[in-house]
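QUALITY CONTROL LOG
STEP: pairwise intake check
CHECKER ROLE: data steward
CRITERIA: each record must contain a sequence immediately followed by its structure tokens, with no blank fields

ENTRY 1 OF 2
RESULT FIELD BELOW
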Amino acid sequence: MVEQAELGDIRLSWSGGVAPIATFHSADFRSLEELASALRREAERMHKAEEAIPRLPASFPYKARHPSDTATGVDAMRMSKEAARETYLTADSEWRQGNQWMARWLLALLSLVSQDRAGKAVRVTPFNAPFGRMKFRDSYFDQGLNYVLQKKDRPLDAFVGWEREEGYTGANLDERAIRDGAVTTDGSPRNAGAPSPTWLAVMAIRFFPIADAGGGNVTVVGWHDFSLYPNASKRTFVWPLWEPPLDPAAIRTLLAHPAVHRLDNSARGVRPAAVAQLRALGVTALFGASRRTRTQGDGPLGPAVRIWP
């Protein structure tokens, strides 16, 4: 978001161990309120331009299926190889015209050739974990943006104290947003996601690109094939915390660094295999969250747990 919206100088660092605190560093913003106001203006601009992602064509991520798409289902982003190819060609055309952002996002949203188990659609980012009739564009982008714009003090609450909104699913990233009947006062299921932090988090999916690994498999920066706790799938997201203030380009590099993802999974738990390298990089901790399971689709990411130290 910082780069695409051209917000200026913003760097991020972390302090604290068990309960980490994020700190923004900037020569352009004097307070969190100023930063939130700039983000608010960008949200309003996006809404007026009907953009889901800053500086991308308004039609992408797709609401309706691409004309060349032979796949079926409710989500237009789960597309056939033919539609994926045409989408990549569109991104290439955008790049040649001076707009790099669709291509950069596409590398994180959509595999080029690897297909799902049914062989009908190419693989998409594991951040897209639908249940029921969730659609990627609507549930992950449009809903969050619309809820942010409903209240004038948003997205400031993402920095100072999350506000939950009844009816919002939290893009299936937030376990506490999914409230089944067993945990509500009247016994009726009623979701309550936090739009501001979720919307900002979704804007960072670009930092976790997909690579085809052969045999229909993909590797995705940050994602691992193990579980951190019971009643969870073997789809786990791992991320570092760091002490030196880093700009977006440096953060992208750190998130994908091999030392962050060289993990040993044994009976004693998951531990990093390159501790000395992590410390040299300024990494102070590794955290992870495993995706829960549901009877009718994927569950949300579970609670964050500290992997190291």
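ENTRY 2 OF 2
RESULT FIELD BELOW
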Amino acid sequence: MPRWFSLIAMAVCVFVLAGLVPAGIPTVQAGQVEIRLAHPDPPDIYTSRKAAGSTVFKHMVDNETGGAIKVNLFPAGQLGGEREIAEAVKLGSVQVGMLSGPFSGFCKEAQVFDIPYLFPSLLVAYRTLEGPFGKELAQECLQKTGMRILTYAQVGFRNFTNSARPIKTPADVKGLKFRVMENPVYMNLVRSMGGAPTPIPWPETYTALQQKVVDGQENPISSIKFAKLYEVQKYMTMDGHTFGVSFMLINEKFLQSLPKEHQAIVRNAALTSAVSENGIDNLENSLGLQFLKEKGMEVYVPTAAEKAQFRSIAQPAVIDYLEKQVGRP
């Protein structure tokens, strides 16, 4: 298997929720260096992982540089969607951006995280991202994009939901229509099990499910709860087919323009922000699962043998596609 598909073994993960306070109106005083940080998520620091992480980053950098650097936050897509944010970071008009899937459009090697059933647990995912693999991927993407991955954070394991029947094995997917992102990896994933992948924009997903345009969809628990998909979906299978990753990116030229001590502060603040993001996500997923059950969703957890069936069918199809896209280093 190519090195992009290798894993580093288990590690201990720790997450904390830092004391968070909302950012004020963006201003910069004379002599200050400004960091414009943009992300697409809502600004609620108690439920939005990117809001929590960006707020931690802001206050650490502001305070530890003694005000020499001022971080101004632009949440909720104020400066555009994730692709626009990445483009702005690459150009340098935004210094720091937080985004997920669209980054693979700039660094195709990042598609490795879309391999289904790659991570058996959060611990393996954390160690992989924090270890040599994560560092090598960051260096590869830096050389290709001029954007440095300051840190990785979790978006969470994605699970199947549908309104037709419980899904316990890949055979249960056959014939069902699933809303997917406009991403060939996810289309290959559903198609490999005999399902019909249907790309639908996220804002239209609820209506598509409600009107039976599609039978199901796949997302992390927190997204299913937030979008109230429990109102139009009866069954959820906790298969955790992919592990979503969020990237905090910084324009490399900007980073190198800072004094060394300020570069270190920025890097450390980014690492701490990821801990906060992961904490929010773990809390939302833990509470969200019980919430979905209380709302009437039937939740099924596949056995190890059933999980192996999903993996044996879906993984080869996606890896074959990615090897053609990324190549075999």
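INTAKE CHECK: passed for both entries
DESCRIPTIVE NOTE, ENTRY 2: Residues 13-157+243-283 form a domain with the D-Maltodextrin-Binding Protein; domain 2 fold (CATH 3.40.190.170).
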